[in-house]
Predict the structure of Shikimate kinase.
Amino acid sequence: MKIILLGYMGVGKSTLGNALAKELEINFIDLDAYIEQKEGKSISDLFVNKAEISFRKKETNYLKQILNHESSFVLSLGGGTPCYANNMELINKYSKNTFYLKASFQFLSKRLYNEKNVRPLLQHLKHLDEFEDFIRKHLFERQNYYFLANFTINVETQSIENNITQILNQLN
């Protein structure tokens, strides 16, 4: 069983994925952490030193490695992973258990504003208005990819336990 969680940064993919994997007693893989471990550098460093397009190519290669594993797992993707190359097509080829963890831009803006200095795509945003506009536009651009997931879970109105129950009820 391969369960894949996707959605915008800060939506809780890693937190929910880790809890879900424990519930199912299977491996949890955070794609960003996997890349950092393989590359020996932080995602921020990979973005700064090599530019985003170079990072996205590496990300796709590591995604393919993980998807080709025979074992069961819960995989938490980076927020941009589904939006590059043919990643979403690849993801849906390997799993029918893909979940878009959905939240509004207001919810995400509140959650991410204090973390902006450790998020490579947000570090340049200085003012709250500018930050909210960026999140709104970026989320709008990415949602078409996110909606290609097999299921959508609205995470901002439920507890982690309720989100896990909802996912468990949808598993194929």
